[in-house]
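Protocol step 4 of 6: structure prediction from sequence.
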Amino acid sequence: MTDKSNVTRENFAERFSEIQNELYRVAFLYVKNSEDARDVVQETAFRCYKNLKTLRQPEYFRTWAVRTAINCSMNMLRKSRRSVPLEDYMVGEAPSPENSAEAAVLLEKLMNRLSPKEKSVVLMRFLYGMTLDEIAKELHIPLGSVKSLLYRSIEKLKKESSE
């Protein structure tokens, strides 16, 4: 019989499955929908497994995993606050597939008019939900440059789309 207080890479799946339902309930309290809650549990499993060596007291595995689930939930909420659903800008009926295809083609044309660095900043900010600090670190450029690139890119996209 295995020691329940000890968590190793070998018995991680078994120990995690014992608390998986509890983690789902915790995540659901934060994110308020089942699909996102399942994503949080999956991200929690990944982070816990990856950082298992940092768990100093294995008897607190459950508490540590719950705290990780809360952090993952909060991260998801922060990311979702940064993005505004497309529906918020839509007026009237939903677009037809033809209109959606036209919009996709227009967006691709607009994005192709941006420089590679401008395109990277826009995609990192709006597609991947990264903060300006995270973008600066990823691209190895100053924060002020990221802000300038983002502002210039948005202005360029606005100008191009109105022509």
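Step 5 (inspection) to follow. The domain at 12-82 is CATH 1.10.1740.10 (Rna Polymerase Sigma Factor; Chain: A).
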